[in-house]
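#lab-general

N.A. 3:47 PM
ok so I finally got the sequence cleaned up, no stray characters, all 360 residues accounted for. can someone with queue access submit it? mine expired

B.Y. 3:52 PM
send it over

N.A. 3:53 PM
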Amino acid sequence: MAALKTLHRNVPYLKQQLYALLGNTSSSVKIVCLMVFIGYFVSYYEPAVLFLTVTPGYVFPPGFRIWTIFTHCFVEFHFWEVCVDVVTIGLCGKLIEPLWGKMEMLTFFTLINTSVAFFGVFFYLAIYMATFNTDVLFEVHIHGLSGYIAAVSVAVKQMMPDHVVIRTPLGKMTNRNVPLCVSLLSIILYLVGLLEGAYPTMYTTGVVIGWLYLRFYQRHSNGTRGDMADNFTFASFFPTVMQPPIEICSKFVYNLLVGIKVCRKPVRKYDVGAPTAITISLPGTDTHDAERRRQIALKALSERLSQQADSGSSWPSLDDDSRPKTEVQAEDQSSPASNPVEPLTVAVEIDPSTSKPSIA
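B.Y. 4:20 PM
back already:
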């Protein structure tokens, strides 16, 4: 009874926070959040759980419940999972959707969830083939947005890799550390029995698939695909000490995928007709990186301006402007006009026979 009174007393606050989270988001974000709430209440009806979640043994014939690959993401069994899903989707609507657009956001949502379910089914099928345990086929239910949340953490790492999430006595944790840390945390919680086995499977699969899509296949407005930046390699997910051996293994796998035509090598574009110098651009690293840095700079600028607006001491007083100027100040202000600085002109001549320009 006391819990109900506390919940009833905090309802206006919760409504205010929910409106602040979803107020300026698109209709697609609100619809997904609504579907997650509906899926949570439907989960109390067990036949609906079997009908909507992915059960590996029923996806293949004779069951052939192929539609569960598209419906499993809206079903959650615990209310805290619903809260995490709604917060994540709301942050995506405010942070990622303005940069990507509505269609790319829906494409990312659909691709990640269906891929996580698809590869999860084959993962449990491989476990069954190794152990002949039928429970992994008929007792495991793949559901929820764990894989999508993992892919979102990869997207946030791509956009703001150096943003500090939390500071600890052992050091600070940035967005580049979140995917690996949460993956390891989910595995540890599964080993101690506090988490179902589907969660680490979905989260790890979501990290890998999200990185593959953003690294090689995402189409940008300038016609390029992927993000070939050096700070978005697969080795960048791991600590600095572990990056050299992982980078060697990842390059071997990448060259293997290029050989079987799954991935393509980055195409370098040379702009010989540029007025100043030859420019080299890689797919996903020119306009995409520039837009990312521009958003980070705008956010930092807005935070700095808000801090200056709060402190009134940063603004000059009117008394300073009304004071009479001294003779020294008048001479200092008149000196640039009396002693103008002559412009310096440098001519650059390029000799075709040499590789370095000579300055005359």
